[in-house]
Write a structure and sequence with these properties.
alpha+beta; 5-stranded mixed β-sheet; 33% helix
């Protein structure tokens, strides 16, 4: 398992993971799947200011098996040291501690950015 920054050619795999949860759960709080352009725009918006990491399965041709990213928790200046966390793991890879590995790395990245609080809505 390798955790690294997202690359352009990872976006579709992340969109597929995300859209699985749109279709099969209430976790995303979205009702409609996102198209590739919509998801790509979201990723590009995130990486302007925050880390967006992917978990890559080195044993399976670098398959993307999960991702995590930070985003603005609230635009008010008093929240500048707080970020919102999202973590998604490919449905057939659950219970392999991928989420924990992503969380550990994103927490380090948050600290390096001066972020003191990481908030996540768990659904």
């Amino acid at each position: 398992m390798r955790i690294r920054d997202i690359k352009e050619n990872d976006v579709q795999a992340c969109a597929d993971i995300y859209n699985y949860y749109v279709k099969n759960s209430c976790f995303t709080l979205e009702e409609d799947e996102l198209s590739f352009p919509e998801y790509d725009k979201r990723v590009k918006s995130v990486i302007k200011n925050y880390p967006f990491l992917v978990a890559e399965n080195a044993e399976n041709d670098g398959e993307i098996v999960g991702f995590a990213y930070l985003s603005a928790f609230n635009e008010r200046s008093g929240y500048r040291y707080t970020a919102d966390l999202s973590v998604y793991v490919k449905n057939d890879c659950l219970r392999a501690h991928i989420g924990q590995k992503l969380y550990d790395e994103i927490e380090k990245r948050a600290a390096a950015l001066g972020i003191k609080n990481v908030v996540s809505i768990i659904t």
